[in-house]
Every structure is written in structure tokens, then in C-alpha cells.
Amino acid sequence: MSQKHLNSVKTGHFKNTASCATEIMPVPDVVKISMSQHIGAPCKPLVAKGDYVTVGQLIGDTDAFVSAPIHSSVSGTVTGIEEQRSAAGGKDTLVVIETDKKQEPCADLKVPQAEDLAGFVKAIRDSGLVGLGGASFPTHIKFNPKNIDEVKTLIVNAAECEPFITSDHRLMLEDAEDLIEGMQLVMKYIGLDHAYIGIEENKPDAIKHLDELIAQKGLSSKMETFTLQARYPKGAERVLVYEITGKTMNAGVLPADLGIILSNVTTIAFVGKYFRTGMPLVEKRMTIDGDAVARPTNVIAPLGTQIKDIMEFCGGYKAEPKKILMGGPMMGRAIFSDGMPIVKNNNAILAFSSKKAIIPEETACINCGRCHSVCPFNLIPTALADAYEEGDAQKLSDLRVMQCMECGSCAYICPARRPLSYSNKLAKIMVKEATTDAK
After folding, report:
1. According to the model, what pLDDT value does residue 358 have?
2. Which of 29, 175, 230, 324 is most buried per CB count within 10 Å?
3. Long-range Cβ pairs for the range 112-115 (8 Å, 24+)
4. What angle do CA 4, 8, 11 make, to 5 degrees?
């Protein structure tokens, strides 16, 4: 195994809520459940205004291949189907439900039974599970790779390298049994030989807890924790694969192509919980933090809960929020309203005052090379930015812009405060459009 490390950046960790036990939020008066909670085609509502729904009831689905069904997180009455602009800029269809606070479970729910891989994959799809670390890729597709006979390793991503976020950390301390059970199920049905849990060194309590549990269950020959440097972006998919296996994963290559199944720790823990309870994905654990939040903590809330209700549960705002992020400060999305609902892949809501949300004025590049020194893939962000400004798609391709994973390390370290990562996002669109036009 390679002992080399990919380039990274040392950000402030700000893990203010690491010792905050997860709190269960009371059911809100209203939830707004999005039909676009995964990469791929959005679901179509299966309910209409006036319908009574129960917890875990299927309320959205589609026949599209890259998709995952959506279930009600509450019991109550559908009061409408409406549209709202999403954090990504598109339009989401929302099923609005007025809750009755009874949380009656759907009568059709049952603990899944799987005889083989096909049954396991079907059960995972039925649960509505998607990648819960941010990507939101439908998990049942990931668990059924075309080259399944060549896939032998499971990597569980528990790095949580973004500043502020501690929800995965709390899961490892509070729901480790579900995590280990989920790992065993995935390994059993896919036929994997060994599993690694990649955890940054700044979570020694989680490492110790999991090591002890693995040993107690006699699983040390099959699974182990793997300690990572506490640097950003050690939790990025391609970085994590290299750190643990030494295998290089270029853009466009899937972990399965390298013989690996890679999933977020919360995703795997849900597998264990689902096969224990039969309840589909209807709630999410999140870190609530930022200098505008009165009481930062970790919260489990029903999917579709509006951010303003979560903030109220956390004591409200102690300062006017200038910027609210869904996710972390490096790769999260800024939102336009705290009336937006949470979705499956939300792992944090961060609210910052104008003091912390100031964007420094951009100045001239001083050619210091810091952006290049922290890029995990040794790209030259300044050269890419210049090529983008010139509109030179071929040069962007030659400079390997498609390798960029938009981690934001270059923009973070830049003393001139150039928006290098955002430029790369636009540059990749330029290359894709040029490639399409050429065909």
C-alpha cells in the first residue's frame, strides 16, 4: 500500500458540536417533501390534495433508471402540490403535508427479507436510499455493479473532512451497531472480502469505539478502521480510494472499476437500521451550526422539515443570517430562504452572520503557486482560469480540467481570493459543450 498522500489543505476544523448528542426534533406543523432528492429524474407525486398519508408511505416514484422512491416522513393530510426553486437553481415539486403529530406508521411496512443479491438490491431501492454524504446517487445502483465478480472491497467514508460538520461523528458514537450490521449485510450480499472505515485522526473516540465493537463481534479479520490525516479533502471519493488502497481513480472512473464499493458512513448505517426496522428513509441527522445560530447542536428531523423550523428548535438566530448553507462551507450550497425543506443528503445547515459571511474583494494573482500545491490532482488552477477566460476549450481539456472535483481547496488557499473552483465548474461545462458540438 502506498504511503504517499495526495495534496490537501489544512482548514480550521471548527467541530463545535462534536460533543453534542443528537437531539430528536419534534414533528413540525408542516413538511414540504421534495420529489428531487437524488441525482437523476425527479419522482412524480403519487398523492393528491386531501389525501391522508402515514409515516413511510410511498408518495413519489418514477420508472427512470437513475432514481429512488420518496416516502412520507409524517402522518397527516396533503394540503397541496407546489413548486419551489431549489438550491441548485432548478425547480422542485413539493408535496405539502399538514401533520397530525400522531406519526402513524404505514400499515404496509415490514422488515425486508432478501434471499440473494437481487432481493437485497430491490430492498435497498424500496427503502429510498441514496448517497447520504452529499452526492445523492441512488444506492441500489451502486450496490449492483456490472463487474460484481471483480469487486472485493468495501470502503466506508467516515472522514467528515468539511469544517463544522459532526453528524457522521455522532452517528459513529451513537449508532455504531447499525453501522457494523450494515457493513456485514453489504459484504454478504455483494460478496466482499474486506472492509475499511476511513476516519480522520481528529475523531479518536469514534475510532476507539468502532475498533472495540469490531473486536467484540469477532470481525477483525474482515473489517478495520483506517486512520486518515485530519486535512481537507480526505473524504473526497477519489482521494479516499487512493489513501486507503493506493489506487488512482481518475475522473469518469467508478470505485467499482477498481474493485471497490464506496459509501458514506450514514448510508451504510441506514442499511443496518432498515433491515432491522423496515422503515424507509424518512429522517436525517444534521449538524446545525454557525455564528448566527443560538444553540448549535446535532438534530434528527423528518425529511421535508423547513429550515426555519429547525432553527427555531435550536433557539432561533442570535444574529441576522447573511448566508445559510446546506452542507459545509467548502462544497455546500447557499440558499435563498430558510423556508426551504431539508432533503435526504443534507448533513448540515450552517448559518453565518455578515461578520463571517463576508466575501473578500478579489485582487491580482501574485503567482504564488499555493493553489497548485494543495490541489489533490496537481492541476494548475490559475492556468485553468486563464484558459476559461480565453474561451479555449481545447486548452482546458489539455490542462485536465475534467479532473477537478470542485473541492474548493484552491479558492480557500488563494491570497488573492480568486474564485478558482467556481471557474473550474464553468470551465467543465464549456468543455462538455464543445465536445457535444464537435459530435
Report:
1. 86
2. 324
3. 112/274, 112/275, 112/278, 114/189
4. 140
At 250, list the grid cell.
481518475
For residues 27 and 306, give the distance between their C-alpha atoms in angstroms, rounded to a whole number: 11
Q: Is-contact 298 287, C-beta < 8 A?
A: yes
332-346 average pLDDT score: 94
Of 239, 243, 184, the residue nearest 214 (C-alpha) = 184
Q: Are 334 and 311 in contact (CB under 8 A)?
A: no
Helix locations, 246-317, DSSP H: 265-277, 307-313
Beta-bridge partners for 300: 24, 285
Quote the CA–CA distance of 113 and 101 in Å, as a whole number.
30
**Cβ-Cβ contacts under 8 Å for 48 (sequence gap 6 or more):** 78, 81
Q: Is the pTM of this model over 0.85?
A: yes
- In angstroms, what is the C-alpha Rg of the chain? 22
pLDDT, residue 436, reads 83
Burial 378-413 (b: 16+ CB within 10 A, else e): ebbbbbbbbbbeeebbebbbebebbbbbbbbbbbbb
Mean pLDDT of 218-234: 97
Among candidate residues 53, 413, 428, the one with its CA nearest the CA of residue 233: 413
At residue 5 the predicted structure's pLDDT band, cuts being 50, 70 and 90, is confident
Q: Which three cell numbers stand for residue 306?
A: 423547513
For β-strands 323-326 and 333-334, DSSP reports them as antiparallel
**DSSP one-letter code for 138:** B
Under 8 Å between Cβ of 418 and 365: yes
Grid coordinates given for 350 = 450552517
Question: Among the residues of 85-236, which ranges form H helices?
Answer: 117-127, 139-142, 167-174, 176-190, 204-216
